[in-house]
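FIELD: query
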Amino acid sequence: MRWRMRWLVLCWALFMAVNTWAAGADVPIRIGLTPVFLDDQTAFVNAWRAYLQNHLKRPVVFVQRASYREITDLMRSGKLDFAWLCGYSYVRNKQSMNLLAVPVYHGKPVYHSYLIVPVSDRRTRSIADLRDRIFAFSDPDSNSGYLVPAHDLYRLQEKPSTFFSKTFYTWSHRKVVEAVAAGLAQGGAVDGYIWDMLALQHPELTAQTRVVSVSAEFGFPPFVAGKTVAPADTAAMRKTLLAMPRDEEGAKLLRNLHLDGFVAGDEHMFDSIAWMMRAIAEK
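FIELD: result
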């Protein structure tokens, strides 16, 4: 009788384990994106979703929101498992997320911020020449689209609110370029990677702007994982991202983004962003 009871208990445990695994396999992995990165990339997002589902053996849902703040709020509340964020958003919210992987662009996991003006403006040489002008930012939680120019003004002992005659947020790097090209703003700050991609795909747009200056290097906007995500899920996602260049389909997706791949990265890649954040907060 005792042997039979042990056997029944073992069978029940195996049954529960199999059902728990099966239920987990049906739970979608939720990944946050903002239009800052993937404007007009519906076909790519669908292809990437299919790729991730195939490799992770789980349903994948991309959750797109208009701002970094909305994505970070969802990460903090546990409603997202992963997200592709800006380094500034990551630094500001490190207590609720872990660094997962960093994209590699032109052989390095770094990018720059570009200061741009209308192509008709041949006189501006730096942000100091844009006093009393209208300036376009991409997102208040963007490194390249807000923090870098704000810190440039900090070094001049100025603030955006008093230095410019007017500022506004476009919530997309592409829209910053569009605003400057159309003359709605006399200057703007954009992610250099995004400007480069637009120059390849929509040269008629970037041709209406001029890059005035290129910032120092910063850690490329990272992929992050929520603190409560199961370690196995985090490991599986990191493994899938890092392996993309070695997979024919993955390499094709990377070429679509003009990226070389992903690396694990480390937190020190974002030290300069943290330093700028602290500097402007102290003013």
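FIELD: remark
The first strand starts at residue 29 and ends at 33.
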